[in-house]
Amino acid sequence: MSERTPCIGGNWKMNTRSADAAALANSVVEMTDRISNVDVVLFPPSIYLQEVASIASGSSVAIGAQDASEHPDGAWTGQISVGMVHDVGCSHLLVGHSERRHGLGESDQLLNSKLRAGLDAGLQVMLCIGETLPQREADKTAAVVVEQVKSDLLGVPREALSGLTIAYEPVWAIGSGLTASPEDAQEVHALVRQTVASLYDVESAHAVRILYGGSVKPDNAADLFAQEDIDGGLIGGASLDPGQFQAIVEAAGQSCRQC
Ligand code: 13P
């Protein structure tokens, strides 16, 4: 249970067609009319950002891009810039998802540039971190996440931290049906917060929301969100199902101490 307002992100990844995206966005907007104590952010595929942002316009649902270039506008074929993300009505940017780190080989140095570009453009950045299964089995979880936090936040000033959310997503838990136990996840979240405190200060670290991601479903959400340093979730598969997504958002609302 946290004192921070919980946040639930729906990462649609490379799923939906235009009509599905619109229907899903409409159902989330409708659902959030009845839930006021959770911040909800949707991350649709970039080609549908404008459409989904216009559906969410005027509601409490925020929209974000799953990725953007570290470069400003220019000759970068196939890329989208943070300025474009902002321009189509988005307020958020996902950086460092494991499918980009490990599937597409994005380095901490690149992710640091993307994160800074996003913050400089006035976007709220959700930074994803997490260890792979071999790293976990070799007892390197702590070292990996601490290194990711330190490298990815390099050069980010304290004033910019209000635009940052961190999502701890153990790579082995993503899309696998396996989840970190609430206690294991809490241990990593506390370590992440401690790392942010060591880079900045305790007060700033206390204010940063740290979400858990990796096979979060309606039946495990409440136990995860009950942990002190787990401030909500970044949801993949279950965010494509309006009923499951709603149940997870409701679980986050119930976990909030002061909402
Ligand atoms: P799943 O919820 O499908 O495991 O995906 C998690 C995730 O990668 C969210 O970014």
Task: Please give a structural write-up.
- Helix 1 runs parallel beside helix 2.
- The chain has an 8-stranded parallel beta barrel with strand order 1-2-3-4-5-6-7-8, surrounded by 6 helices.
- The protein has 11 helices and 8 strands.
- Helix 3 links the parallel strand 3 and strand 4.
- The chain has one domain: TIM Barrel.
- The radius of gyration is 17 Å and the shape is globular.
- With 259 residues, it is α/β, with parallel strands linked by helices.
- 45% of the residues are buried.
- The model has no long low-confidence stretch (mean pLDDT 96).
- The structure holds 1,3-dihydroxyacetonephosphate (13P).
- 1,3-dihydroxyacetonephosphate binds next to strand 8.
The separation of the N and C termini measures: 11 Å
Bound molecules: 1,3-dihydroxyacetonephosphate
Question: What's the CATH C level?
Answer: Alpha Beta
Mean pLDDT: 96
Record the strand order, biggest sheet: 1-2-3-4-5-6-7-8
State which percent range the strand residues make up.
5-15%
Number of helices: 11
Order of helices and strands: EHEHEHEHHEHHEHHEHEH
Which topology does CATH recognise? Answer: TIM Barrel
Low-pLDDT segments:
none
> How many domains make up the 3D coordinates?
1
Categorize the overall geometry.
Answer: globular
